[in-house]
Every structure is written in C-alpha cells, then in structure tokens.
Amino acid sequence: MLNRRLFTSAGALAAATLAVPRLHAQTKLEKTKVSIAVGGKAAFYYLPLTISEQLGYFKAEGLDVEISDFAGGARALQAVVGGSADVCSGAFEHTINLQAKNQAFQCFVLQGRAPQIAVGVSTKAMPNYKTLTDLKGKKIGVSAPGSSTNMVANLVLSRGGMKASDVSYIGVGVAAGALTALRSGQIDAISNTDPVMTMLEQKGDVKIISDTRTLKGTQEVFGGLMPAACLYASADYIQKNPNTCQALANAIVHGLKWLQTAGPGDIIKTVPEAYLLGDRALYLASFDKVRESIATDGIVPAEGPKTALAAIASFDTSVKADKIDIAKLYTNEFARRAKDRFKA
C-alpha cells in the first residue's frame, strides 16, 4: 500500500479542477483540425481513441483529427511538448512528470481507469525465476523508455528494493515487435499492455509477476484507483480552445458509451485487422481481461490523481509530492458535459 501520508495539504485532498473558460453559446470550434499524438495505438490501452476514430465520432463533432502513432507514450509526449501535435493520448502520470518540470499540462477526458500493464519474465530466458532480485542485470522490454510500461516496471522493481539502474530497458513497442523481442531472447522480461501480454501468457512464453489489467490487480499494485490513458494538452491550449476540447471529450465519451455494450464481434469488426496480431481468439481473450479497466464516462475519479502521484513519488526522486498541485493536473468539466449528453 502506498504511503498516504505523502499528502499533507488539504488542497491536494480536494477533487478540485482547474477553472476552464465557459463554452461559448454557439458551438463554433476554435480549431477543426486537431493533431493527436499517441504511443502504441494498437494497444487496448487506447481502444477508446480507436473506437471513436473508426466509428466517426470525431467527424460527428465537426473535427478533422489526424492521429500520429509513436513507439511509446514518451515519444508522443515529446511531440506535444515540442508543438508538432496539439493533444496527447497518453498516460495520466505524464501530467505529473510535466508539472514537476514546471510545464502545465492537463488531462481533460479519461480513457482508462487502470494501467492495463502486466510485467512478466521469460520462461525460456529465466526458467528458475523466484524473486525480483533475479532481474538484476537483465534486459526488460518496455513500449518505449520513459513510457507508462517503464514507470510500472520501475515501481515493481522498487517494491523489491531495486533501482531502475539495476536493469537495462529496451524499447520494443506494443505489437508484433514486442512478441518477437521476448520470444527471440532479445529481452529477459517484459512490461507491456494487452493484447501482447495475454498472447505471451497463453502461449506459455512468460510468467506474470505483476498485473494491473484488472481493477483488483491495480488496487494491489497501487493501493487505489489509478487513472491511466487520457487525452491531455497544455493548459494554454485548453484555455484557448474550450469548444474544441469539448468536441474531443464528446467523441471519446461517445466511444466509451459504445464500448459499454459492444460485443466481441463488434470489436473485431471495428478495429483495424492489424491490431489482432494474427489471432482473433487471443485478441478477444485479451479484451475480456481488460474490459473493466476501460473508463465508462471519461471522468477522473477523485482519489485517482493522489494514487498516481504517490506511485511516482515512491520511486522518482525528481517528483516531490508536496510540490505538485493535484487540482491542476486535470479537469472534469468537459467529461461531465459529455457524460450528461450521452448518458454515459
């Protein structure tokens, strides 16, 4: 359980949100063309983004969205910070890391309420694995260095008294390349999302040692609800483009609403064929495993940001919990309006 005493300020305990400008009476969008950067779009972690895109929900909101897919969340973050993308579909904890570097970025609609990341050791490379210390000096595959998969691996290692510098991290993506890297022996262990982890698990390629693909597993690893995938942008962008951000939130929440009742056949018909990684049955088995971790209404739970901050501060010395203003990490204003509109 993470130490809750990190949070001493009453302000941090409030589920306050940063004030956002009132939407104009008319719904004229400040920008109709929006570029979204994402790291590993084929992962279930970003399924709501894919669903909203494939079903035309962005277009229905008057948006012309261009989605650029990067190898991992850290690369997508760089695109947004560098100005080559407007919005990032990325991990909530990036807003914390950015604020720690005095950069104001804010989540404005949630896609996932659990990280959906599992850590496993290769049954071939490490058949005699017993404890976390066995990973010392080993190569761990992550989607990309600095990404959410890297963060979860760091947290798991810290629980075993180890540091990130005790292992080597290798970027392997979140698709076929990750499967190949593990099976060919390029890496000894892996921290990744589904469908990759279920595919490795069901073929006996890995032994799972930590799992946040379910709400129960997330509670065990993080000690509480952990906001995961979200859309975030600079506070400046959100202030200047409230109608555009509302349209983006509407599209995502519309997708979340669809996912609440979608059957396996609906998912298969909607996602691109390449996402199935050549095995429909295993893809659907993966979906069943992570389904409950997908957000239902786009709203960040009140306790979630505190859990995320405690997790990061527990192993990242550059993040000082008492210096982070939790209220500025997210706003639920847009998601609440979208929830009301779509009855999500």
Global outline: globular
Q: How helical, in percent, are the residues?
A: 25-40%
Integer tally of domains: 2
Unreliable residue runs: 1-25
Strand order of the largest sheet: 2-1-3-10-4
Question: What does this 3D model show about the protein?
Answer:
The protein has 344 residues and is an alpha/beta fold. The chain folds into 2 domains: 4-114 and 225-342, D-Maltodextrin-Binding Protein, domain 2, CATH 3.40.190; 117-211, Periplasmic binding protein-like II (D-Maltodextrin-Binding Protein, domain 2), CATH 3.40.190. It has helices at 10-13, 47-54, 57-60, 73-81, 93-100, 148-159, 176-183, 196-202, 215-222, 235-240, 242-261, 264-270, 280-290, 304-313, 333-342; strands spanning 33-39, 64-70, 87-91, 105-110, 117-122, 139-142, 168-171, 189-193, 206-211, 229-234. The protein has a 5-stranded mixed sheet, with helices on both faces. A 5-stranded mixed sheet has the order 7-6-8-5-9, with helices on both faces. β6 (139-142), α6 and β7 (168-171) form a beta-alpha-beta unit. The protein starts with 9 loop residues before the first helix and ends with a helix. 52% of the residues are buried. Residues 1-25 have low confidence and may be disordered.
